[in-house]
Amino acid sequence: MTWTSRGFPLVIAAPSGAGKTTLGRALVRRAAGTVFALSATTRPARPDERDERDYRFVDNTTFDALIESNELLEWAYVHSFRYGTLKSGVEHALASARCVVLDIDVQGARRIRELFEDAVLVFVLPPSAAELERRLTDRGSESLDGRAARLKTALHELQAVGEFEYVVINDDFDKALDALNAVVVAERHRRTRFVALDGRVRRMERKLATMIGGTE
């Protein structure tokens, strides 16, 4: 019988521009048994994004329908657009004993913690405020006002770092990815995640006791 551990949600939150999405997707490519939770959004797709791969891109009417039919685990307004985690993908991943990676904001992280007590929360930080501003500028996808709004949101989100179990500093990408992978490995070995652990340990104890008794 194979030793198995239960799946769990791994929430990655960060200020916009800190690199959480890139890290999360790289983690899924590296770590076996890890999947990325698909989110729906009313935001237009960027040039390098594809529907049903990066997000499910929907209009406001469709997003309203997802809310009404209880198909979202959580949703929130982020910079004038709505984002929501699709319930079906998360539930399927957990039922398959996988680690499901959720790339969401602080508000969404709090909601996932309410729904899943065993969720693991990771906050990704940029190495400095100046570097965060540089990354947002280099991305070139926001206006000057839009970039200012994201920096204002970042200031608010930083106040929630204390609610997270792990912090990863995304200065060197490879090192940050190694740190995220280490979190997944450690959490998979958490005692409470192993399936039927107590029963298997008791059987091992009885077997050992029999072996010891036979040598006396």
Gyration radius over CA: 20 Å
Q: Could you give the distance between the termini?
A: 30 Å
- Extended strand count: 9
Which homologous superfamily in CATH is the superfamily?
Answer: P-loop containing nucleotide triphosphate hydrolases
CATH architecture: 3-Layer(aba) Sandwich
What portion of residues is helical? 40-55%
CATH class: Alpha Beta
Q: Indicate the proportion of strand residues.
A: 15-25%
The tally of structural domains comes to 1
Q: Poorly predicted ranges (pLDDT <50, ≥5 residues)?
A: none
Topology as a string of helices (H) and strands (E):
EHEEEHEEHEHEHHEHH
- Average pLDDT number: 92
Q: Mind summarizing the main beta sheet?
A: 5 strands, parallel
Helix/strand-derived category reads alpha/beta
CATH topology: Rossmann fold
Specify the number of helices. Answer: 8
Gross morphology is: globular
Arrangement of strands in the largest sheet: 2-7-1-8-9
Keywords:
8 helices; 5-stranded parallel beta sheet; 4-stranded mixed beta sheet; Rossmann fold; 216 residues
How would you sum up this structure, described in words?
- The structure is a single chain.
- With 216 residues, the protein is of the alpha/beta class.
- The chain has a single domain (8-215), classed as 3-Layer(aba) Sandwich (Rossmann fold), CATH 3.40.50.300.
- Helix content is 46%, strand content 19%.
- It has helices at 20-30, 60-68, 87-95, 106-115, 129-139, 144-157, 173-188, 197-215, and strands at residues 8-13, 34-36, 39-41, 56-57, 72-78, 81-86, 99-103, 120-125, 166-169.
- Strands 2-7-1-8-9 form a five-stranded parallel beta sheet, with helices on both faces. Strands 4-3-6-5 form a four-stranded mixed beta sheet.
- The protein is globular.
